[in-house]
Amino acid sequence: MIGDDPFVSDTDSVLDPQDRAYVEQIDDAELRDVVVASLRRHRRPERLAAGDPMPDAVLHPADGGEPVALRSLLTGRPALLVFGSFT
After folding, report:
1. Contact 8, 34 (CB under 8 A)
2. Band of pLDDT at residue 29, cut at 50, 70 and 90
3. Which one of 15, 47, 50, 70 has the fewest beta carbons within 10 angstroms of its own beta carbon?
4. Do residues 38 and 46 make contact, with C-beta atoms less than 8 angstroms apart?
5. Can you tell me the distance from the alpha carbon of 47 to that of 63, in angstroms, rounded to the nearest whole number?
6. How many helical (H) and strand (E) elements, i.e. helices and strands, does the chain have?
7. Domain map of the chain by residue range?
8. Is residue 23 a contact partner of residue 32, using CB atoms and an 8 Å limit?
9. What pLDDT is recorded for position 20?
10. Distance between CA 33 and CA 42 in Å, rounded?
11. How are the residues of the chain apportioned to helix, strand and coil, as percentages rounded to the nearest 5?
12. CB contact at 8 A, 51 and 64
């Protein structure tokens, strides 16, 4: 159980309920440590959260096209940004 693992219980402020439920179902302690370490490194609860206003940003197309202000893409509908490496 997550509460019995000192490494995991040390991350209460990092684990949201969905993360906690996922981590609790991992039986392999080594894999659980890797998942929690990843959450600890990449989750930033003090940063943007769901529902926060979008920060100003400019997108620069990979093909060298004209930069686009992110806010200009929103026309009264939700937007999803996916960040990652495509190489």
Report:
1. no
2. very high
3. 50
4. no
5. 30
6. 3, 2
7. 2-42
8. yes
9. 87
10. 14
11. 40, 5, 55
12. no
